[in-house]
TrEMBL record:
Keywords: Mitochondrion
Pfam family, any one: IATP
Name listed for the protein in its UniProt record: ATPase inhibitor
Entry similarity comment: Belongs to the ATPase inhibitor family.
Organism the protein comes from: Hevea brasiliensis (Para rubber tree)
PANTHER family, alphabetized: OS08G0558900 PROTEIN (PTHR33878:SF4), OS08G0559000 PROTEIN (PTHR33878)
InterPro entries noted in UniProt: At2g27730-like, ATPase_inhibitor_mt
Length: 83
């Protein structure tokens, strides 16, 4: 009788947890399970790294654009000195 009561209580508790938004778990690809908090922290880290990567690409593109403009300005200057 006690076992039946414990089993039914366990089922009720699990069903209540699922309706209250109990912690869900995700795999990290290594067989380990991540909690929602760990998953959120991982997502924040990934987004931060992605922003940093995009910022570096943006700075590189701006630098290349400035160098091209400088070269074209020098060519125009050289062309006007030849006259």
């Amino acid at each position: 009788m006690a076992t039946r009561f414990a089993l039914s209580r366990l089922c009720i508790t699990r069903s209540m947890d699922s309706t209250r938004g109990a912690t869900r778990y995700f795999s990290d690809g290594k067989g380990r399970v991540l909690s929602e908090e760990e998953r959120a922290a991982e997502n924040v880290y990934i987004q931060k790294k992605e922003r940093e990567r995009l910022e570096k690409l943006k700075q590189k593109a701006e630098k290349e654009k400035a160098e091209k403009e400088k070269e074209s300005a020098e060519k125009k200057t050289e062309g006007s000195h030849k006259d």
